[in-house]
Design a protein that fits this description.
0% strand; globular; mainly alpha; 11 helices
């Protein structure tokens, strides 16, 4: 006789999800990845390759290129470092999507994964704040625009995110039938739920800042465009809009879906939401988490549009290498 919908999860997790003995005695994980078992490894593999190559090239340009160092380039360099670490984490998510992995390694990869995510969120916020002051108050000089301050605040962002994620690591998830899986739904204590919800709250506060600041920037750019009648000036205004709003677009696409799903997901982890909703929440969480990793592919696009010196240095580096390779090939043919 066919079980009613949701009973598979109920029977695997135990009738009473608060009963730790029932959970630990179950050997079968009732929360399945379904179609994600094959889809996520393929998508993560593509993102890892594109993200690693593009951010490695970006770091090469930041370190050895001819671009001038300013506050924006400092933030972008740290953003490329975070994205490179994220790209290096993704092969482990590919490897352990179907199979169990060493618990210590799984926790370490999880910590690095979320550290890089929130470092990226804070750095994008700092880039937006930098742009906001430059556009709204162009005649004033703020500390955020200086290289020493931007370097120091970037280091503070790394320290805060690492320290916070270590708290998550120490507050381990509760044992359960899916505890043997690396990246999977797990019940959490109330303390873990509060920590997770605090991170979500901080994100939405930053989102409100984004919406406010970009609303003000949009009004300012619109007012400037009304005063410009020449075609060249209009093109310059269009470039300014693209340079400004590319950060907002990437921020919303990559991180908003994840944090929206995160709210009911955390409530399910602390058993406030019924266990019948765990299966769809797990699938939704895995999908939006995958979308969030697109950030490591989109950030180099931000570098290209946001910094004209980065664009010039990248093109000079790339064209220079192509020219050098072409000359070497010609010499080899001549020797033959």
């Amino acid at each position: 006789m066919e079980q009613p919908r949701g009973m598979g999860i109920r029977s695997s997790l135990g009738e009473n999800p608060r009963n730790g003995s029932n959970l630990s005695n179950e050997s079968t994980c009732g929360i399945q990845d379904d179609f994600l078992t094959e889809t996520l490894p393929a998508v993560y593999s593509i993102i890892a390759i594109v993200g690693f190559i593009s951010n490695f090239l970006a770091l090469w340009v930041f370190s050895f290129g001819s671009l001038k160092t300013n506050s924006i380039t400092v933030y972008m360099k740290h953003l490329a470092i975070a994205d490179l670490f994220l790209a290096l984490c993704l092969p482990f998510r590919v490897a352990y999507q179907k199979h169990s992995g060493p618990p210590a390694l799984c926790k370490m990869i999880g910590v690095i994964f979320y550290v890089t995510m929130y470092v990226s969120i804070f750095l994008l916020s700092l880039i937006s704040l930098d742009r906001y002051f430059k556009i709204i108050k162009p005649l004033q000089q703020f500390r955020i625009h200086t290289v020493p301050f931007s370097t120091a605040i970037s280091g503070v962002v790394w320290l805060i995110c690492i320290a916070t994620m270590l708290c998550f690591l120490l507050n381990s998830s509760e044992a359960g039938p899916c505890g043997h899986k690396c990246f999977h739904f797990k019940y959490r204590s109330n303390t873990g739920g509060v920590l997770n919800m605090t991170a979500v709250t901080i994100f939405f506060l930053l989102l409100l800042f984004f919406l406010y600041s970009y609303g003000k920037i949009s009004l300012r750019l619109h007012a400037v465009s009304l005063k410009k009648t020449q075609q060249h000036s209009k093109k310059m205004s269009t470039r300014a809009v693209i340079k400004t709003f590319v950060v907002l677009v990437v921020f919303i696409i990559c991180f908003v879906p994840y944090h929206m799903v995160r709210i009911p997901y955390i409530l399910a982890q602390v058993r406030i939401i019924s266990e019948q909703n765990i299966q769809p929440l797990h699938l939704a969480n895995e999908l939006v988490l995958c979308i969030s990793t697109l950030n490591c592919c989109f950030d180099p696009v931000i570098f290209f549009f946001l910094s004209s010196s980065f664009k010039k240095s990248l093109l000079d580096t790339t064209l220079g290498k192509l020219k050098w390779a072409s000359q070497n090939n010609q010499r080899a043919l001549y020797v033959r």
